[in-house]
Amino acid sequence: MTKNWYIALDLETGGLGQPCSLLTGYYAIVTPDLRIFSECELIIKPDDGLYHLQAKGMEINGINIVKHDAAAITLKEAGTKLYNFLMTADAALRNIYSDKLIPLGHGVRQDVEFMITAKLISRGSWENFVSHRALDTSSAARFLQDCGLLPAELSGSLISLADYFGVVREGAAHDARVDTVASIEVLRHLRGLIQK
Question: Domains (ranges, CATH) in the chain?
Answer without folding.
Answer: 6-195 (3.30.420.10)
